[in-house]
Give the backbone structure.
Amino acid sequence: MERYDTIVVGLGGMGSAAAFHVAQRGRRVVGLEQFTLAHDRGSSHGRSRVTRQAYFENPAYVPLLGRANELWTQLQRYSGMRLIEITGGLMLGPPDGGVVKGNLASARTHGLPHEVLEAPEVRRRFPAFSIEDTKIGVLDKVAGVLFPEDCIRAHAAAATRAGAELRWQEPVVSWKATGDSVEVKTTQGTYVAGNLVLCAGPWMGELLAGLSVPLVVERNVLYWFRPTTDVVMFSPDKFPVFIIEYEPGKVFYGFPALGDDGVKVARHHTGISCSPTDIKREVNQNEIREARWILERNLPTVNGDLLSATTCMYTNTPDGHFIIDWHPRHPNVILASPCSGHGFKFASVIGEVLADLACDGQTKHPIDMFRLGRFKHA
Ligand SMILES: Cc1cc2nc3c(=O)[nH]c(=O)nc-3n(C[C@H](O)[C@H](O)[C@H](O)COP(=O)(O)OP(=O)(O)OC[C@H]3O[C@@H](n4cnc5c(N)ncnc54)[C@H](O)[C@@H]3O)c2cc1C
C-alpha cells in the first residue's frame, strides 16, 4: 500500500488550503472529500465572505489576518482568479458595544488604517444606512470581500499542480492512529500516512467521537435582496461590507451588490442548533420577516424583492475562538476547526499553519489561544 506523508480530511475552506501548503513543501499528500469541489453542503458556500483587519473579536487575531491577506493576494495572482476585493468595511453600533469597541481596540493596538464616523457622517457618506444618532461607525480601510468557492477552487488547483492527490466524493468512514502511522478508511479504500489533518467543518464532531470537544453546529441563513433604489448605489466602489450591532449583542452584516446577485445580508449567531444530517435547508417565512424587520430599521432601501436565500452551518466553540491543535491522545493527528462563524478569511494562513504543524511539528504563527486545553474536559 502506498504511504503518504500527510492525509487531509475535508477539502473545504481549510482543507484545500492545508493540502496546497503541504504539497508546496514537496510532501506527499492526499486530500479526501466526501462531496464535490466547492460544494454547498458545509460552511464555505454562499458566494461571498467578509474579510477585515480591525478585528472586534480580539486584537490577537490581527497578525494572522495580515498574513492571511498576503497569502490571498499571492494566490489570486498565481491563479488568475478574482479571490479578494477590498471595499472597506463599515462597523456600526453603540460606542460601547462589542463591535465598535472591539474594532477600535484592534485598530488602535495594531495601528490599522481606520476612521471613526459619527452617525450624521455615516448617513451622509453612505445614505443607504438609517442609523440612529446613538450609534457610530468605524471604517476599516482594508476590509473587503472574499469569493469562497473560487478560493477553494484556486487552492485545490494549486495543490494539484504542486503534486497533491485530491479525491472527491470519497467519504472517510473511520481513522486510527498507531505509533508513527495513521490509517484512514474511506468508502473506496484505505490510506496510510505519517500524519493526519482533520478539517471536517461541521462534521468534525462525528470524526472525533470519543473525544469531548465542545463543538455545537448552528444553522444560519443568507439572503439576497434586490434594492428598491438604483443598484449602482450599492456597487463595491460606493458601498462597503458592513456589520451592524443593531441591538445590544445582536449583529447583522452584509455586502455590496456583486454581479447580478443583489445585496447579500445575514444575521450573525441567531440560528438554531442542528447537525449536518438533520439541518433544515428550506428558509421559512418567519425568518424572512425577521430579516426584513432589521432591514426596514437599518437599511430600508435594501428591503426589496427577495432574490434567493440559503442555509449554511457555523461550528461553534464555547468562547467563539478556533480550535487548532494536536489530538490530545495522538501526536500525529492535527485538529482544525476554525469556524464559530468567522473563520473563512483565515483559511489561507491556517493552511500555512497546518502545513507547519504537519511538516515541522511547530509553527511561528500565534495559535496558543486556539489550543484545546482551554476547555475543561478536552
Ligand atoms: C452563513 C455563514 C457565513 C459566514 N460568514 C463568514 C464571513 O463573512 N467571514 C469569515 O471569515 N467567515 C465566515 N463564515 C465562517 C467560515 O465560512 C467558516 O469558518 C469556514 O468556511 C469553515 O471552513 P472549514 O474548512 O472548517 O469547513 P468546510 O468548508 O465546511 O469544510 C469541511 C469539509 O469537510 C468535508 N468532510 C466532512 N466530513 C468528511 C468525511 N467524513 N469525509 C470526507 N470529507 C468530509 C465536508 O464535506 C467539507 O467539504 C461564515 C460561515 C457561514 C456558515
